[in-house]
Amino acid sequence: MDNTTNLTVSSAPHVRSKETTSNIMYQVVLALVPVMLAAFYFFGSAAIYLLLTCGITAMLAEAAVQKLRGKPVTISDGSALLTGLILALTLPPKLPLWMAIFGSIIAIVLGKHIFGGLGHNVFNPALVGRAFLTLSYVVSMTEWTAPNGVVDAMSTATPLEGEAEVINLFIGRVGGSLGETSALAILLGGLYLLYKGYIDWRIPVGYLGTVAVLTTFVGEQGASFHLFAGGLMFGAIFMATDMVTSPVTKKGRWFFAIGCGLITTIIRVFGNYPEGVLFSILLMNMCVPLIDQYTLPRIYGEVKANG
């Protein structure tokens, strides 16, 4: 009897998922719904205008670049739409729409396609767009609007530039960018992403935990203030966890998150700029290839160099 077993040898991956890029992108958009609804509730039609402007512009920019590069147009996969929506949620409610258009184009062209397109970008595209607007239009990017129904002297400044009750920060009754004011709405979206398995809990926990520990001992405001103020919660859940620009290993994600938290705290407490989330994530994005290199586990059977 011939006991020979025929084996099929093939290259990785050997385990495949039914998930598609399009499905993941639209699920993240779905997770943003509570944040977008909160933005509409607190800032009214201004939120709708910014969301539509950034979303549509990002898709048009993506289609134009892909046409110029001779690549298939893939705006239906939702990645450009997601970039536009995230960018819009990091912008002040009253930002001129032409600036939002400019930022969306920069996010797609310089943040994404200059590196080769989806999956090849080093930096989070939405953050690239926001960084460009922040450095180019400082006054417009720091003009905060009080939420509907709130008449507070603090409403003309971001919470990081004044004092606010933690409950107002948690609910969203403070001035700020569209998607940064309501920690409650952000957490609802984050819980959905965790349930679906689209983000790793290590990054938001490591990021938020680092800021909480450090600001307990340094700075004038307490840890609870820093956790709920500014864009920390939104950045930790929706931007630092980006699949393309965050580490692939579990250990690496801890290093990435702690680095983001450390840089954010340094900028907030010791710098002249009131918010450090934007630059902390961009700086740590640059470190991701190095983090992956030193945290990837050794392949089974692999022999170290020189013995």
Secondary structure: elements and pairs:
Blueprint: H1 21-31, H2 33-43, H3 45-68, H4 79-89, H5 97-109, H6 125-136, H7 166-171, H8 183-196, H9 202-217, H10 223-228, H11 232-239, H12 250-270, H13 277-295
> What is the mean pLDDT?
86
Report the sheet-strand fraction: under 5%
CATH topology: Ammonium transporter fold
- Contiguous low-pLDDT stretches (5 residues minimum) are none
What is the count of structural domains? 1
Q: Choose one word for the global shape.
A: globular
Structural class: mainly alpha
Number of helical segments with 4 or more residues: 13
At the first level of CATH, the class is Mainly Alpha
Order of helices and strands: HHHHHHHHHHHHH
Report the helical percentage.
55-70%
Number of strands: 0
The first-to-last residue Cα distance is: 43 Å
Radius of gyration: 21 Å
From the coordinates shown, what is the CATH architecture? Orthogonal Bundle
The major pleated sheet works out as: none
In short:
The chain has one domain (23-293): Orthogonal Bundle (Ammonium transporter fold).
Characterization of the model:
By secondary structure, the protein is mainly alpha-helical. It has a single domain (23-293), classed as Ammonium transporter fold. The protein is built from 13 helices and no strands. It has helices at 21-31, 33-43, 45-68, 79-89, 97-109, 125-136, 166-171, 183-196, 202-217, 223-228, 232-239, 250-270, 277-295. The longest helix has 24 residues, at 45-68. It is globular, with a radius of gyration of 21 Å. The model has no long low-confidence stretch (mean pLDDT 86).
